[in-house]
């Protein structure tokens, strides 16, 4: 499903972080099955926080750490599954995200409580 989500993001502004720490934000023109991506109107930020503008950029897929896609894609047709119960896959994904946030929150709370008793 992640590749399909990346393909749905074509034509939208995405943010990519590479494994070397560089961050690129631009319009996703094309993406391939191996995560190779072509971006236009790119704002590049290096690991040392140097910012520059690029008209075009090609990113090799194996160098990508993660991609941030527009939040509007959570309503994409691929998240709607007619074979699931009410709420569908989209609700399942949202519940999973909420569970991850709650887990992180509870871990912070436990850590804070342990600090109080030290």
From TrEMBL:
Keywords linked to the UniProt accession: Cytoplasm, mRNA processing, mRNA splicing, Nucleus, Ribonucleoprotein
UniProt superkingdom: Eukaryota
Cell location: Cytoplasm, Cytosol; Nucleus
InterPro entries, A to Z: LSm4/Sm_D1/D3, LSM_dom_sf, Sm, Sm_dom_euk/arc, SmD3
Keyword set includes Cytoplasm: yes
Sm domain sequence ranges: 1-73
Xref: Gene3D superfamilies: 2.30.30.100
Pfam families named among the record's database cross-references: LSM
UniProt xrefs under CDD domains: Sm_D3 (cd01721)
Presence of the UniProt keyword Ribonucleoprotein in the record: yes
Family: Belongs to the snRNP core protein family.
Known role: Core component of the spliceosomal U1, U2, U4 and U5 small nuclear ribonucleoproteins (snRNPs), the building blocks of the spliceosome.
Name used for this protein in its record: Small nuclear ribonucleoprotein Sm D3
């Amino acid at each position: 499903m992640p590749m399909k989500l990346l393909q749905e993001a074509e034509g939208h502004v995405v943010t990519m972080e590479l494994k070397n720490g560089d961050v690129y934000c631009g319009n996703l023109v094309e993406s391939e099955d191996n995560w190779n991506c072509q971006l236009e109107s790119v704002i590049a930020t290096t690991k040392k926080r140097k910012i520059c503008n690029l008209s075009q950029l090609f990113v090799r897929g194996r160098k990508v750490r993660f991609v941030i896609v527009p939040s509007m894609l959570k309503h994409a047709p691929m998240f709607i599954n007619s074979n699931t119960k009410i709420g569908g896959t989209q609700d399942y994904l949202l519940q999973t995200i909420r569970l991850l946030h709650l887990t992180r929150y509870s871990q912070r709370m436990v850590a804070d409580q342990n600090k109080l008793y030290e």
